[in-house]
Amino acid sequence: MPLLKKVEKIWVDGKLIAWDDAQEHVLAHSLHYGLGAFEGIRAYQLADGKTAVFRLREHIDRLYDSCHIATIEIPYAREKLVQACLEVVRVNKLQAAYLRPLVFLGYGALGVGSLESPTRTVVAAYEWGAYLGEEGLRRGIRCKVSGFRRAQNDAFFSKGKITGQYVMSVLANRDAVKNGFDEAILLDGQGLVCEGSGENIFMVKDGAIRTPPTSAAILAGITRATVLQLARELGVEVREQSFTVDEMWTADELFMTGTAAEVTPVREVDGRRIGSGEPGPVTRRLQDRFFAAVKGNDPGHADWLTPV
Ligand code: PMP
Questions:
Q1: Which residue, 3, 128, 199, 217, is the most exposed by fewest CB within 10 angstroms?
Q2: Cβ(12)–Cβ(122) under 8 Å?
Q3: Which residues on adjacent β-strands are paired with residue 253?
Q4: Can you give the pTM of this predicted structure?
């Protein structure tokens, strides 16, 4: 995984400041206990050369939901953060970017439940290519079912992108990559398939697609919702229903979705070839529709794009 590619400015607490000045004290509350919330958003260069952010409003709304779950009040109106996202792309002259809004508790008090630490709000933007690799997008990736479990909904707030909850994702992804795989797939306590460390998961069987419902311990991915809508528009049968590991191994096709991962085919899980071992026709069609939408080549979904 390449290191961050530095740009000029980051938006911090309402101001654009130099990248190198965006520092935090080592005794910041969130660094110790993981209460914070973040987003991952992409801006794409469109076919006409302009730049637009994909589903920006939905991502900002989810950031507010995550903070609501985490009892953190964002000290800005939504519109201000929407503008901050556009501003960091613009000021850094990025044609395509990954955006990382983060709300966390800064330096002040360090009691576990202390209410005195200041709420800090950050929006960064930088260049970031295909998360699971260009080759992964084209040929499909190899995954491993993780030994780490997604906690159930009574012990984990899966609808929030809450910083501390990413520990299991980090461990599962590191373990998969260390063992020569591209990504981990996490199950819940009952052994049902949940999602990747940072992606939702879909299987295709007999022409119909299936993905765990949002009542499962998954993040309600914005790319997931996008792909479900595109699939319905293509007349593909869609079922939001959990599946088992052996159902996944015997799927005709498997793919993952996420802002970072986009629509990435999975060609192998636990050493078992999925379908033909190559991205299948349903995955390909959805991938094509997805890239058409994000790059402004789908007039029916122009409302998903916010010009920078
Ligand atoms: N699941 C998890 C655990 C994630 O971190 C992400 C990335 N945000 C996703 C799913 C995909 O969500 P989205 O499509 O909104 O990026």
A1: 3
A2: yes
A3: 204
A4: 0.97
Cα separation, 205 vs 253, whole angstroms: 7
Q: pLDDT tens-digit profile of 87-97?
A: 999 999 999 99
When pLDDT is cut at 50, 70 and 90, the band that residue 1 belongs to is low
The CATH class of the 134-294 domain is alpha beta
Closest CA to 139 of 126, 152, 130, 151: 130
Best residue among 42, 223, 264 to mutate for probing ligand 1, ranked by most atoms within 8 Å of CB: 223
Tens-place pLDDT, residues 156-199: 999 999 999 999 999 999 999 999 999 999 999 999 999 999 99
Per-residue model confidence as pLDDT tens digits over 22-35: 999 999 999 999 99
Beta bridge partners of residue 304, listed in sequence order: none
Helices marked H in 14-166: 29-33, 56-69, 78-91, 134-139
CA–CA separation, 248 vs 228, rounded Å?
18
**Helix pair 222-233, 281-294: axis angle to 10 deg:** 110
Q: Helix %, strand %, coil % for the chain, to 5?
A: 30, 30, 40
Residue ranges of domains in the chain: 9-126, 134-294
Cα–Cα distances in angstroms (integers) from residue 40 to residues 102, 244, 261, in the given order? 9, 28, 11
- Pocket probe for ligand 1: among 219, 229, 262, 264, the residue whose CB has the most ligand atoms within 8 Å is 219
What kind of architecture, by CATH, is found in domain 9-126? 2-Layer Sandwich (3.30)
Q: How many residues does the chain have?
A: 308
Which stretches does DSSP call E strand in 110-182?
119-126, 141-149
Is pLDDT above 70 for 305? yes
pLDDT at position 129? 86
